[in-house]
Specification:
seven-stranded mixed beta sheet, 0% helix, four-stranded antiparallel beta sheet, 11 strands, 53% strand, mainly beta, single chain
Length: 118
């Protein structure tokens, strides 16, 4: 039984940086895609970034030039580096591992809160 955990959220001032890490237990994150979503109360969940099994990353237009997604295979983790944070980046950030391409299922982490003060 696998599980995910997001690490690295917190409170930061506008313009600051945070690095989130999606770490897995019992799941090989080098297989399949990993997605970072954020949930803001009252709004639809938003896909922020993802990376496929070949390491090709994508980020949403709303964070392009500020956020970077990448793998750390030595730690079986996927990070989301967030620079130039804005108050509108505030939300709960969740990572999802999609193992369905290899016959598995999706795994969701519990999320980590990011709060950006103005």
């Amino acid at each position: 039984q696998g599980s995910l955990m997001e690490i690295g959220g917190g409170l930061v001032q506008a313009g600051g940086s945070l690095r989130l890490s999606c770490e897995a237990s019992g799941i090989d994150l080098s297989i399949g895609g990993v997605h970072w979503y954020r949930q803001i109360p009252g709004r639809q969940r938003e896909l922020v970034a993802d990376i496929d099994g070949r390491g090709r990353g994508w980020v949403a237009d709303s964070v392009k030039g500020r956020f970077t997604i990448g793998r750390d295979n030595s730690k079986n983790a996927v990070f989301l580096q967030m620079n130039g944070l804005k108050p509108e980046d505030t939300g709960r950030y969740l990572c999802i591992s999609d193992q369905r391409p290899v016959g598995g299922r999706e795994y969701w982490g519990p999320g980590t809160q990011v709060t950006v003060s103005s």
